[in-house]
Amino acid sequence: MPTTLIERPATPAAPRPDSAPRRRTRVFALPEARWAAAATVLFLIALPLQLTGAPAWAWAPLYALAYATGGWEPAWAGLQALREKTLDVDLLMIVAALGAAAVGQVMDGALLIVIFATSGALEALATARTADSVRGLLDLAPPTATRLLPDGAEESVPTERLAVGDTVLVRPGERIGADGRVLDGASEVDQATITGEPLPVPKQRGDEVFAGTLNGTGALRIRVERDAADSVIARIVQLVEEASETKAPTQLFIEKVEQRYSIGMVVATLAVFAVPLALGAAFTGSLLRAMTFMIVASPCAVVLATMPPLLSAIANAGRHGVLVKSAVVMERLGQADAVALDKTGTLTEGTPRVTDLRPLTGSGLSEEELLTLAAASEHPSEHPLARAVVDAARTRGLALAAAEDFTSAPGIGVTATVGGRAVAVGAPARMPNGSADEVRAEAAALATELEDGGRTAVLVVRDGVPVGLLGIADRLRPDAAATVRALTALTGTAPMLLTGDNPRAAARLAAEVGITDVRAGLLPQDKVAAVREREQAGRKVLVVGDGVNDAPALAAAHTGLAMGRAGSDLALETADAVIVRDELATVPAVVALSRRARSLVVQNLVIASVFISVLAVWDLVATLPLPLGVLGHEGSTVLVGLNGLRLLRESAWTRARAGTAR
To answer: pLDDT: is 334 or 1 the higher one?
Structure first.
């Protein structure tokens, strides 16, 4: 039974959700933070007792507890790594602290433990907040939805229990609980968090809506078309979390070097201890110098230099509708120095529209009669051009007669009987040979005119006689020209256009957006050949496409980006990253963000190297106090981590877009 939609009094408009709701991990929800806090409190109690001359039994147990609470986790992790024949730098820090305690420097060792534990807690918090920024997208979807039963009754159910085919009612001011399509009702939906559109979008029957977007003042009845796990929001979360588990080439290189470096550091530490001792130096002084050297030379900051910037960039891009599938991809995006763009569905909207109606002289048909004849014949077809013709007739409110004896030939066109007349609609090349010369000449001239103007010409034939032509074209995306300019500025080379469309249509569109290198009439293997040609010339090519025919080129490229809204499943699976919102302007933005991430990686490596070098040389040529060495080492680690997390901020994406828009 259909359900009647009842308009309720409008509720005060809720603030527009310009960003995902915050879901922030509490500091003390992390075990690392609790252990670090306990160690710090114990240290702060023990230190004044020791400094004021209290007996050792009053402060020594407190220091011991500080060692235990702050050091047991890294010690256990280090021992487990040692069992796998891997030397963990965390274990070296614990050894250094115990060494300091062994020579009577109990307070210095405890300070090392406290700072080391605090540094680990800050790293854990930074990682958790990165995950929060992605998982917070899930909060956009409401916890419950109003499901309509077959008898018209309503029930409130958790949104995760909604299934494909269910019908839900969304009242004014409510958030939409699932991806679906409007069955009934009209409203405006604020979907800035999903599509990036700045203004609410009118929605009526047949329009697509997304989970987590905010309904306006009208009521909507929506049919669910995706399970909760397959919604746009869930896909963003899943892909970004998967990306966070990967490691970029720079990180893999650092980890490979880390083991050799750590072994070399242990050997150097033994030498720093043994050589002065052999030359007559005091045992305690030699051991302290060696422990200090092992601390300051530890590569903790170097290890942390790479992943925070890349993971932060991945999370930030995900919030803005670009799903980067791995840290490897995020690093590679910024390396691109050439771009190849598909035409249909990438530079254009991918939705053909009728632009011209040209009845032939002597046909006796008006523009609307020509369109009615063509649309009636094309109505049973599922071809995109046929849909464009039928949609144009519906937009004009034309009544279509039923088509009989319908047949369709791929690449040629359709034939049908409409109102007792035989009608054929298809390519101008199929023009009947028996047509009068003047009719053929007029039709050929119109077809040439339409194709020269970048439109696809469609010939309409009635009872074996051409009666008119339709011009059909795809609309250029509003941000296409600006995107091409931005990519040209970023890479130093204008993008090339790879398309299977005819050369004249491709050249016309390329001229509109500022592309000079046009490759038209390409099959999928031709697109691959064009990409490999650039790669062999030493270029790192970024390919942007959406169709099945683009998948081979996406796979062959240095990096592949797929348009997500209308992209084929094969393209989405093959591509390294997906533009969920189909917002072409995000392509140069994410490239700029990747370059910023790579710049921060270099900054972090420089910071870490400078700290290690200065502190190590200081310890070797002079006397570096152990507490100062600890502060320098752990301070550099925290500084590097926080520097990488700067890319989590909204301003990082804003600057990336602003920089490419100049």
So the answer is: 334
